[in-house]
Structure formats: C-alpha cells, structure tokens
Amino acid sequence: MTTTLLRGRTLSFLRWPQTIDDVSAYAYEEDGGLLLRDGKIVAAGSYAEVVKKADDGVKTIDHRPHLLLPGFIDAHMHFPQMQVIASYGAELLDWLNTYTFPEEKKFRDAQHGRRIARLFLDEVIRHGTTTVAAYCSVHKSSAEAFFAESHGRNMLNIAGKVMMDRNAPDGVLDTPQSGYDDTKALIAEWHGKGRQHYAITPRFAITSSPEQMEMAGALVKEFPDLHMQTHLSENHAEIAYTCELYPEARDYTDVYARYGLLGQKALLGHCIHLSEREADVLSETGSVAVFCPTSNLFLGSGLFDYQRYRSREKPLRIAAATDVGGGTNYSMLRTMDEGYKVIALQGEKLNPFQSFWQITRGNAEALSLADKVGTLDAGTDADIVVLDSGAIPAMKLRMETVKTLAEELFLLQTLGDDRAVREVYVAGRPAKSDMVSV
Ligand code: GUN
Ligand code: ZN
Description:
Strands 5, 6, 7, 8, 9, 10, 11, 12 and 13 form a nine-stranded parallel sheet that branches. The protein is globular. It is of the alpha/beta class. The protein has 15 helices and 16 strands. The longest helix has 17 residues, at 110-126. A hairpin with a 2-residue loop joins β15 and β16.
C-alpha cells in the first residue's frame, strides 16, 4: 500500500462556472491537501483536515506555492502524427494526402509504433495531460503498441485503430472485414484491461465505404458502452466530398446517424460548419462536439462557435482537444489560449474558470469519465497536475501584478506551456520527474 500526502493550492470544479464570479462552481483551498492511496485520492480538502486522516510517517510532498489540479484531459489526438506537426501549406484533404497518410504508413512497422507510442505518452505527460482519446493508425499493431505503453504507465486512456478502406493509399487501408475483425480482437484484448478503454474509430466518412460504415455500426451495437470517435464537418471541401459519396444522406451528420454511430459515447472531432439541423441531431443524441482550436486555425478549417453551441436551445456537449498533429501543440494550456482567441473572433469570451473547467471536469463529463478522472474528489483516480504560475521570467514578472485566482489562471493559459507543469501524478505516482528524457 503506497500512501502519499500532497500539499499545495488545490483547485477542482464542481460544475460549469456561469460567470467569472461564480465561486460556487469550484473548490479552492489556499493550503490544500490530497491524500493518495493505491492510485486513488482518498481525502481532499484543507491540509489541516486531510493531514488528520494520514498515517503517521506518511510521505508528504510539499508543492506550495504551486497549484494542484486534476490532470488535463485531451479528447482528440492522433498518436501516429508526431512527425506530421508543422507540415506546411495545406488544407485538410491535401494535408492528409501529402503528409499524414504517408507518415501513418510507417506504422506498418510495429517497432516504429512502439517507439512513437512511448515518445507520445512522454510528451503528453510532460504537458500535464493524464488522459487522452487517441486515434492509432490503421494497423492493429499500432493500437497494441499504444495500449501496451499506456497500460505500462497505468494511465487511463481511450484509443482505437482507425478503420479506413478507401480514398487513401495502399499501406493505410484495411477492408470492412479486417477492420471489423481487428477492432474486435483489440477490444477483447485491451478494453477494460487496467485503465484502458477502446474506442471504435472509423476515421471519417470519406475513408470508409458504406460496407465499412455498416461494420462500424454493427460494432457500436455489439459494444454500446464503448466510445466511438470520428471526424465531422471540419472543412468545406470535406463536407462537399462526403455529401457526394453519400448522396442519400441529408447532410454529413446524417451519414453517421444512418449507420447508428451517434450517441452519448460518440466523440466527433471539429463540428465547425454544422447546420442548425445537424446541431439539433447531435444535441438530441447526446453526441459530443470536440473543439480543436490549434488545428482549426493551422489548417484554416474555420471557427468553432463554442458559446453558441453551449447556449442554444438544444445545447451541445462539448470537449476540447489538441488534435495533434493537425493541432500544433501538446499543451492543453496552449490549446485553451488559442480557443480563447477563436471564441473572441466571434465576439464572445470564455472566462478562465470555464476554460480550466473544460480541460478537467468538462472533458471528463464529455468522455463519460467524471466518476474516475477530471476532479480531485475522494474516490477518484489520483491523476494530478502541478502548475507553476511563475515558471518562466515573463510569467514571474506578470505574476507580480496578479491579484485574483481568475487572473492567475488566465496568465497560466496565456503564457503557459510544458514549462509551467512542475509535476504530474498518474495513478498516484510521480510521472514527469520520473521520466528519463525530461
Ligand atoms: N479527418 C480525417 N482524418 C483526420 C486527421 O487525421 N486529422 C484531422 N484534423 N482531420 C481528419
Ligand atoms: Zn483528428
């Protein structure tokens, strides 16, 4: 039994903060304590209260004056795209054909998959993220590599091999049958093993034939508790091509609806150009729209209308994500900084509490995982990030004039990156300071 007591300024969200003054939306302790035992948070609150519950001689780690938050959650990443980041000059479909598919072809080699899976999770942790929903390549071995690495680190991650059987080069294609069989075998081997979750992952409608979409729908029916992740309405050329490929569908969203892919566990990357009808369908089915600001800006895809989606009569469930390697940074701080600007360009604001709610509890709720991660509640998993608001000279200087927690969080989001992440705990164990490559 390993027990650790962490001391620092603890911040955890209870619900969506309506305004910047909505203090009832979060729990903040200036001198907070978290008691961790066997990978779980067993007590949280003021240090004075929590220390009473600790055994004599408990190992105490004093992180004061730093902030302790739930580890960040990234709801959409592509682990085989580490070497795609920073590919110049293309919009989505060209970017996929020119850079992404050739790169993903390299994952035919299982050894390459194992190397990148290790480096990917190193990078994720260095940036303070403790849970991701990841796309693997089409190759079964890439998902095996990802899950083996994730399980070895005792991380709670969601992942799946992409199903794609057309409109991409040889070497990154499966068939409806092999995509189905490989997915089923991966579910049997990995879903529910330790903290691993499998996501059924048809890449998007363009790269799946109607036969493959049928198979994906059959898998969702067979395994209704699993996540399903795909892309939706990212770019105008993509939407037009999808509607050509599926002429019987009313619109892009209807393609996924027809194959039974929508629902509470459906994670739909991008959702930028939805019609009101499509947004209604997502709302009615409880499907999740995943906001990927750095990617949407980098690929010139468009502006996700976060506040309209949240406040419409039929609101959408929203998650936030990096979308590495269309996304340009592994950091959820950098992501929300760009997210703030995307929202500002549409005449709206996302306040700092809403922002930090989103990348912790908000994403956990969107992934239906809030009973396990995304808060500092007793009984949940001990995935924690330690943030240093004065990590670099520019932050330290700006901190001299910061007076409120809201201002501090906004500074962390605006100037922060992996350097602001002092430590990361995964299932109660230090994971960043332990890393060989840091
Ligand atoms: N649509 C289908 N595949 C991808 C991908 O890998 N990245 C992005 N951004 N969009 C996609
Ligand atoms: Zn993506």
